[in-house]
Amino acid sequence: MPIPKAIKTPWLLVLLVIGGCGSQEGARFALPGKVGASGEIVVVCENSVWSGAVGDTLRSIFGKPFPVLPQYEPWFDLVHLTPESFDRFWKPHRNIIDLVLADRVDTQVPSVSIYREKYARNQIYIEGAARTSAGLALALAEREEEMRSILHRTEVERFGLLMALDENEVIKAELAERMQLELTLPRDARWAKKNDEMGWIDRQLTRMKGGDNHDVQQGFVVYREPYTSDEQFSMQARLDKRNAIMRAHLPGPTKGSYMTTEMRYIPSYEETVFNGQFASELRGLWRIENNYMGGPFYSLTVLDERSGELVTVEGYTYAPYFDKREYMREAEAVVRSLQWADPTKQKE
Asked: Residue 71 is part of which domain span?
């Protein structure tokens, strides 16, 4: 079942629409698992289409910079295939854009349709058809934000599903007891600090590049604060609170160093709705004062109506030898796994 056309649809509405477009449950498990690298889109079209206005439009849409990273990385990497090469090996790919230029009855009006799970579980499949290259390029451009949002959030959801297969139950239970919330964290995460004001969870990884092992760090910070005014949701208020928490609780590797926000690059701020409650998102760069370390972060602040408090969950990455886009999608998956803990399930 296709997702109906919706230009500049808010992310929440997009997710509500796409969530209802999967296969029936029994048929779903008959589908193969998805293949392909995270952040990759296979574009199926003739060479003439790929090298013309349609290909240029797709490269513009998905080649825009991923928000607030220290170096340029595109939203998605595009892989072009001709229709003849698009065989059963490629059809289960995680993200597919299938384009047709033809003078037929059904292509007189350019169309773009978005499907979930056409050939594989958790797959996003986009079909575009038109009579002319200009018409198809325009139809794709009109749904730029919607396509990018659906594909990004689906990649984040996929990381969340993977982590849920082997999550850290110990930290999850302790967060429920200490802070009345739940997060899905990978099993190799560990506590770096916990007190009455905040919790800091650390994850240390090792990745190979250029024949050598290099360290990658992901961190997650959780804190509550009394909710007294709508002004607390403003970008400046969120930055002030973030910097205060980081300075007090996240020391750097050398004496007198601590985490703060890098303000030479303007953070990205958006007010949104998360799980039916008012929230704000903040994306930016962090740095260590009096040191050289730095990287990107993603922060979500949500009103907990049960307690009348604001809850902030942040994920950040330090990966100086690697691209950071997919590490940040993984960190975002942890942040957006936030749920309120059920008090009835906590230990007596």
From this structure: 11-163
